[in-house]
Amino acid sequence: MKSLKISILVFASMVAACFMGTGKVQAQEFTIQGDLVSSYVWRGFYQTGVSFQPTLGFGIGDFSLTAWGSTDFDGASSGEGAAAKEIDLTAAYTFGESGLTFSVASLWWGGQGARKYFNFKSHETAHHFEAGLAYTLPVEKFPLSIAWYTMFAGADKDGKGRQNYSSYVELNYPFSVKSVDLNLTCGFLPYEAGVGVYGVPNSGFAVTNVALKGITEIKITDSFSIPVFAQAIWNPRMEDAHLVFGVTLRP
After folding, report:
1. Which domain holds residue 199?
2. How many Cα atoms within 13 Å fall on the side-chain side of residue 145?
3. Is the pTM of the predicted complex or chain greater than 0.85?
4. Which of 2, 115, 135, 153 is most buried, by CB atoms within 10 Å?
């Protein structure tokens, strides 16, 4: 319980420190959008069917605070249980033009009707607290990025109730072909601790997310268009594959 309280304090302190560091008047940016997807696949693992995923974000200077959620349609009409519901809160800070970004997130996917969102007891909470460090190469023609995420507190426990420190590493390479923005992804679990969250009985290193995503726009009028995307995803460890289509709605 003590370690979880410390983790929450670290999360809150980071948010406060980032705001304190923005004493000068800087441009503020808000992000309001929603994605409708044919299925929700996270880090190569299938989560739910057709889902709506809203985003509310705020950025000032090099700091950003983002709320992201997901809820499906299948569970709401199914006799098997309530709809899936996920709410993720992420605070991130980019260190100028260094290409380095540090983030802390609270991931919660307790589901509709689960409640107890504010239960932060170490062995009872449904929150997963995750720290991330991402770096983008300072090469304009080769903007490869690599990110490492580790769950350091919360519900990520091993069979003996100890913190599991599940980790995930992801490489991304964005590029464009004509009017389509593309992104190649390769994600993997670096060691056995990934079993706790991802449910993969791997003995160590495991590639779980190889994907190609394409984004373009459907032009409605000269001044209005709708972004759409498609993503092919392969999970070698699970011997599984997914094809996801999505529509983005934003002002």
Report:
1. 2-249
2. 18
3. yes
4. 153
